[in-house]
Amino acid sequence: MSSTTRPAPAPPDHLPKHLGATLEAGPPGELRLRVSTLAFERAARMLKDAGARFVSILLADTPEPALLAALALRGELLVLRAPTEADPVAYGSLGAWWPGARWSEQELVERSNVRPLGAHYARRLTAPDADLLDRRVQGLDVFALPYGPVRSGVFEAIQFQIETGGEDVARMQTRPFFKHRGMEERFAGLTPERAVHVAERVAGIASAAYAIAFCEGVERALGVCAPARAQRWRAVYAELERLACHLDVIAKQAETTALHVGQARFQILKETVVRLRARLTGSRFARGMIVPGGVRAEGAVGLDELSRELDRLERELQRDRRLFLGTPSMTDRLIGSGRLARTLVEDYCAVGPLARGSGLSTDARHERPYGDYKRLGVNVITRREGDAMARVDVRFAELFESLRLLRQSIEHLRRRDGELRTALPADGAGAAFGWAEAPQGELAMWVELRDGLVHRVRIASPSLRNWALFDHAFPKDVLTDFAFIEHSFGLTPAGADR
Amino acid sequence: MLTWIPRGLRAGRITTRYPAREEPAPPGYRGRIELTNATGAAPELAQVCPTGAITVDRERRLALDRGRCILCGACVQAAPARFAFAARYQTAARSRDALVVPEADAEVPVEPARQALGEQARALRRSIHVRHIDCGSDGSEEWEIQALWNPYYDIQRLGFFLTAAPRHADVLLVTGALTNAMRAPLERTWEVMPQPKALVAVGTDACSGGLCPAGELTAGGVDALLAVDVYVPGSPPAPIAIMHGLLLATGLLGAGELAP
Known about the structure:
- The complex is a heterodimer of chains A (498) and B (260).
- Chain A is of the alpha+beta class.
- Chain A has helices spanning 37-49, 99-111, 183-186, 192-200, 207-222, 228-256, 260-281, 303-325, 328-334, 342-347, 352-356, 364-367, 373-376, 388-415, 462-467, 482-489, 493-497, and strands spanning 22-24, 30-34, 53-60, 66-73, 76-83, 89-92, 114-117, 143-147, 159-164, 169-175, 290-291, 294-295, 430-438, 441-450, 453-460.
- Chain A folds into three domains: 22-117, 2-Layer Sandwich (Beta Polymerase, domain 2), CATH 3.30.460; 143-175, no CATH class; 183-497, Cytochrome-c3 Hydrogenase, chain B.
- In chain A, a hairpin with a 2-residue loop joins strand 4 (66-73) and strand 5.
- In chain B, the strands form three sheets. Chain B has a five-stranded parallel beta sheet, with helices on both faces.
- The interface between A and B is large, with 63 and 64 residues.
């Protein structure tokens, strides 16, 4: 086995032997393994065989230039770190044999000077052109139909190249990055207090999750901890966000079946949550509350009133769920649509309700509890069917789980008073991953700090990771199922494109 | 299916009466920033703003560009005697200059195209077709636009309909700082819309780029490419703010009625 740096525990037993890696000190929950660029691919492959899930591949700059791969394995985030000064950085490709790593690696190739050996990335992923289609369609009588980036209705910009003979979907190609705004670069040089505004605007519908992941990254890099009361408020905002996002998905599912009253009902519930957030924080998206080191202020709504509002919401939700699940015109369109096999979901390292709908019990709040989730205890809800219905069903169950967590957090907030903010050390330096379970799935953020300023941020968004699976979501489905399947994914292009 | 009907009726009327009646924002709502004292400011105050919305001139007079403001509250925290959040929804203005306070709020003449649109709307009993295009938003603006058709806001009661085809559209709602990949789709969408037509920039990103100013990846706002008729700043603007912007764009609402 390899030798270790300080402190000197032996590499944990659950890791494969002969990994060729050295254990390094890292923040809690983050297991840093130093490897050479030569051993990088082999180590990743051994960890994949041991059951690891791919999270991200990136170039780090702190404490030294290095190639980094983040993998999730049994309650830990494994960080393979290969320090290198080489230009270009050459290493054995992960995307060549690991579908879950493909888009992340391709993005790295197109944005920086790395050379993954053994990989061949044909089309340019990160610079899409709405008019440039892949002319090589598969099969006779098949034509390619570009759908997007401007679509009917109010949708974010993304394009799908649908190859179809009329009904069956022969091949689907998702084309993201129409909305690439370079958000990761906007963090550089800002103070953490200022950079959190950028984090909140990467994927606006998941503002709280992005703010939490960023603040967790900053706090872990600097070795500070937000006060317990601040963590409770963060959990409140995160769970309210989950309610709003899941209700949005369900309302859109009702809309696609032209179930107008159902759509109106779930829109009302969603707006109720958004308005509650506005009263609580002054922002309909709870922006400006989560800050590095804690939260800015107490929520502006009394805790008694807050729990009364949630009780009312739960009563309404129970009735509407019963009606929704008892409406065959609704459920018939979802059952069996867009079925994703568990093995496929595993290969693509999908996260969030999408993975949970195919039987994978993955949830950052449970796997690597952060903040208040260390105390709350999250029940991870899974369904085995893997179809659009299963994904909607997971969301329904998670709505009630979120309400349960909210009630628990409120109870804790009521019982004990406390500080809201820990001061960050001036001129702090360090690097760490921060993570949060966004409504779309696990979000991981690599945060580097130098002299008290943000130096580099890299984001592994759930939307980009899950979208790669969309190309495989039409095994026995026809074109008219498109909207159902898309909404059941519940992703946001803003988060994917950054 | 029948079971849904009593469920829908039970809720009663929840729709806002805006614009006939003002829709109050909840207390503490961070709708926009008011400049309460603009004179004698330290030049360093301009550095407080992450998007450069605050400027201090030679006479040490403050100016705030709401078109750049992302409502982060850094200025309110740094100088509470000068800046304050106002709990109101409406933020829209007909020109970029009108978003800068405390510049004299000069009345901007209604452009002929929009005037024609307003007259047409009145003649057709206010039927206006709206098209949306995302040019790089953070996704929250889309939520707020979608909300206009939910039972709380129900903008259809004012005759606004969402249309799938740009050729049917009278108003184009644009969100986002305008990324490179969206330039051509935006240009083409606007081109095929019939006259008279109006373009509404929704969100601070669409007004000025916000945190994504003009650069290699974004144009820093829609007006870098097309003339904007109404700006609705906000990060994101609330549904009432967007509704206010739509009413301004179609000439259905005079600048004086319920406007700031």
